[in-house]
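Subject: complex prediction, re-run

Hi both,

The earlier run crashed halfway through, so I resubmitted it with identical inputs.
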Amino acid sequence: MSAEIQVRVNGKSYQSQVEPRLLLVHYLRDVLGLTGTHVGCETSICGACTVLLDGRAVKSCTVLAVQASGSEITTIEGVSALPPVNGSGLHPVQEGFWEKHGLQCGFCTPGMILSSIELLRDNPSPSRPEIRQAISGNLCRCTGYQHIVMAVEYAAKKMKSKKR
Amino acid sequence: MPAATRYLGKAMKRKEDPRLIQGLAHYVDDLVLPHLQYAAILRSPYAHAKIRSIDVSKAQAAPGVSLVLTGADLRDRIGMVPCAAQIPDMKSAPRPVLALDRVRFAGEGVAVVVATSRYAARDAVDLIEVDYDPLTPVVDPEKAIQKGSPVLYDDHKDNIAYRWELEGGDVKAAFKNADKVVKQRLLNQRLIPVAMETRGVVAEYKPGERQLTVWSSTQIPHLLRTQIAAMLDLPEYSVRVITPEVGGGFGSKLNVYAEEALTGYLAMRLGVPVKWIESRRENFQTTIHGRDQIDDIEVAIKKDGTILGLRVRAIADLGAYYQLLTPLIPTLTGLMASGCYKIPAIRVELTGVLTNKMSTDAYRGAGRPEATYLVERALDLVAAELKKDPVEVRRKNFPKLAEFPYATPTGVIYDSANYPRSLDLALKLSGYAKLRREQAKARKQGRVMGVGISTYVEICAMGPSSAMPAGGWESATVRIEPSGMVNLMTGASPHGQGQETSFAQLGAEILGIEPGDVNVIHGDTAIVPYGIGTFGSRGTAVGGTAAYMALMKLRTKLATLAGFLMEEDPSKLVFDKMKIFSKAHPKKSIGFGEVVAAAYTAKTLPPGMEPGMDATSFFEPSNFTFPFGAHVCVVEIDKETGDVRLLKYIAVDDCGNVLNPLLVDGQVHGGIVQSFGQAMLEEAVYDEQGQLITGELTDYAIPRAADLPWLETDRTVTPSPVNPMGVKGVGEAGTIGATPALANAVADALAPFGVRHVDMPFKRERIWKLMQKGTRRAK
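This time it finished cleanly. Structure:
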């Protein structure tokens, strides 16, 4: 049994025949080859598989590919094209993670970046507790989160200065 | 370390980050090879059972399935899972790659399926029928060693894996001369490491070249290669291990696992590449666990707070089998039982116990967090007993500065330290005296507030080969290519620690070039010289020192050649900004690239000099290093709910000289938060049937961002005399120093309720009950 889906991923349209039980994360990774999205727990706890689905951060390990049909998806590979686009080829949130040492092993990082992008779109000037709350659905075992909070603060500042 | 610091000690952002923040990095599961097939493993639902029969026929016939194998099919084809640790009179506990006729923990592999897709492989696993004959599981380590307990192995008379003792100083006299003896039982609960990336293996065999390539998420590629070759009976040159990006280890990937050899075997047998990716549930059940130690301590003291002696009776729950270092880990607790104190007499009696659980092994800190926890709790219990401030008792028992290097009665020699300095700084940063006044005020208001202190020492830079099962040295090769670009190959296998950056800083500093021109390569046994790996806070102190030595060899060769070409004294040459020049005539210089090119074109070399520009060094440390520090924290407990909130955390760590402060801060933060996890949230619980009931992230809480306050960190710098850079290591400091600070804060908070001690994790229910009991008693 298979079902046809149509999705736009990072601005590109795809049409695929998939098993109805295929998880979105496996579709992105195994069918489209976008391996920047990681599988960390398969129970929607860790957030390593976070992507933007029609602009909302979702855990793609608990979304079926067929549920995403007709949707617009952004993965870490497409993040640099999200506004505000700057000259460096990196999104300000990516830059923040680099500048502030917001990652060590890097496995949780794509999910963290996508959750942070959603936060800053909804709340351009988050407080530290708001940042911590917003990334609490994303687990990191390396950094202790503090540098991630600093990375998001860096990005918030940078994005505000771009708007001016 | 060279005096000049153009790059060393600077907070340089990481070279490894661009690929990681753009989704361009490759972890094991990101690798795709032509004709790749997928393995999935059927695991025992029973903790202890005999296997009567296994029927794989339905699985074998399922769509997409190419192979199903059981333990019996692999007998004599794959060797046992290796254990490198040997303790005198230790019982054997051999683990086959898949169970033969008996399973000894829930999650043990019983059969493997290979199929053309992940989904098909998992589907077929469900079609395998196993007839088990359940046996009584052995779960409680104390009951396990009582007479009459069921025994895990038919050829053992009991479940005692080994007894190990360590004694230094006159323990009997210490207890005889004591004014008081403080006793306490301390539980160091079982933990799950939870690297964010689970384990995974891809293997490919090329029969023509007789080459098995194994990609594995491991901390020890070379040791793994040696062991896979032995398990599969292949010449070592026929096995290549590649460690791609590794999504966290924390000791859990410092091992040789059944699946690593099994996946290799499957690829050889089927003639196609095979991938096995661990599910999170498997990761909980079958990747090593940490801690799980019961420590009964007795401290002999004088009335003034002087500690005369310490006795520890420890029971370590090892689980059902030995993984690579399982039996060794609890002995490290013995080695570090002196803490950062002068305790003249120490006796440690350790009993390693076999139970129907997953093996324990090295989890961040590995034996030393247990030691620090018991010593630091002991100091607070002594302070409480004598109604003294915990700071005062600590100061009283620090060894004097003149006593360093300080030899403990447990047989280790602390290289260098200044314990009062880090303590003073932590007290100053935390406003300790003010905190105590605030606490007194809070208590009057009926609030439950606690202040916790820990002054710790840890044993790092593992280590002298005499003390390490597989050798403790590390290697590095530096090759300056004809273009002047540098490849630095390290036998250490970093996985998030940032050595691609810090070693590039080191290379740039020594050779007077740019960090961008130094490329660090690791984790490929075909490219990198044999190395030991990254664990035990050894990456910089041992691996970095090997890199330093190899770089210095090349610097000497470059200086000789440059001196020859420039007619200058090589010993007077300076390397800076891509140039080599004499201190005496700085205007006369030669380009770094020019000298390198001369070494390769080899037209004009000094007599006796070989062409080329590469060097290899192996660094054998003469001793461990002993980083230390002082942590202070403040907690407040909700009287109504028992909820413990961490309000303030101050950490002063001393890891010797620092190559990149950004990386050190990252290690310290991460370590403290893992400690927070142990203290507040984490506990691997097996029920009476030996089922791991905290078997997923849904049931096992690790810290989230919102759980934590801002961590304030600072440093003192006491260089180590053990290596030329004076570095000590910092990977485990946080997990060693922070747990006792948090535990001491909670016990301190609960003191008005008549509580002396409370075991971790400090979950609401436990804390609430203690407060209720204390309140009732007060009435």
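Residues 480 and 613 of chain B are 6 Å apart (CA to CA).

- K.
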